[in-house]
Amino acid sequence: MIDTHNIKANIPRLEWTEARRIVIKIGSALLVDCNNGKLKLAWLNSITDEILKLRAQHKDVVVVSSGSIALGRNLIGLPPGPLELDYSQAAAAVGQISLAHAYQDVFHQRGMVAAQILLTLDDTEERRRYLNARCTIEALLDRGVVPIVNENDTVATTEIRYGDNDRLSARVANIIGADCLVLLSDIDGLYTSPSYVGQSSCRIDEVREITPEIEAMAGCSGNTIARGGMVTKLEAAKIALAAGTHMVISSGRVLRPLKVLSEGGPCTWFIAQSDPVTTKKRWISGLLKHAGYIHIDKGAERALLEGRSLLPAGVKRIEGCFDRGDVVVIKSIAGVELGRGLIAYSNIDAKRILGKKSTEIVGILGYNGRSELIHRDDMALMRKSVK
Ligand code: GLU
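That is the input. Now the predicted structure with glutamic acid docked in place:
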């Protein structure tokens, strides 16, 4: 559905004000001056002030920042224009150090801690690595740290790379179950026709479905240092909406760009039909294949129906051969299927901690794993929980 009328102008959207976990994607063109390859420090300071405000409201924030190639190419004297892959990798290797330092400095000045996370395509697509990335980001968020993510451009070759941070940021939002993804761009949203065509064109306020009509509106970036254009932004929107994450394209060409969202200013919202947890549960319940069975006692069954997680203490028996993150079927002591979930341990480790208290896990396994065998957000029950 398309809404080209700005009926909700100046009213901040609930998708923004109610968001608890936000991913903010910052494009190279916002952070780096394409004329001299220097960092736009005033802009970086202003967005960091805004992140500080979000953190003060107890919101989790993850930044996906481009800029390594744009910063690095100047430092090693590469000419303007498109670069061969090995030179863009060399530029990224140089520029990423400066980028990470810049974030570390501006965050430190405000009493915040920033962390650098460099991901490859495989880190987000392959299950084990995906889970590792999720655990690391969760641990950082738990300690109040702001992860600054970029693609690991130095090792990612053409076939195994995103190449644009639009889609990477959507996958990151998906991995951590973010409820809102903000793409700060050099344009304030999606227009009915690409502006470079020179036709009269108007901005769309809200998109609920990426139809062929919407896709036809995407143009190309037209910017020499940014890789993504509207096409990759719509690809990002598809990933975000499928995972239950709302996405917004908003202009980063102003200082304090997030203020625009707080004030209901111009932008394009892509509205997900469901939230990340519900979407994930629906996905789990729809999976046909599973890797094993977890037989649980009456107490654990009651706890699950009350909306709680499955702890090792309530497990009687385990069948099957599975790894962390695989889907297993949860069965009652009477053999009735209660639901399915993503298990936090392999069958080998799960058997060792079966029937034990969560506090005993570290002593038995030698590492401090999750206290839940299956977290409630990773579980889809056949019957609705009562809480
Ligand atoms: N990862 C690239 C960089 O840091 C940017 C990719 C993009 O522009 O989306 O330069």
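The longest helix spans residues 85-109.
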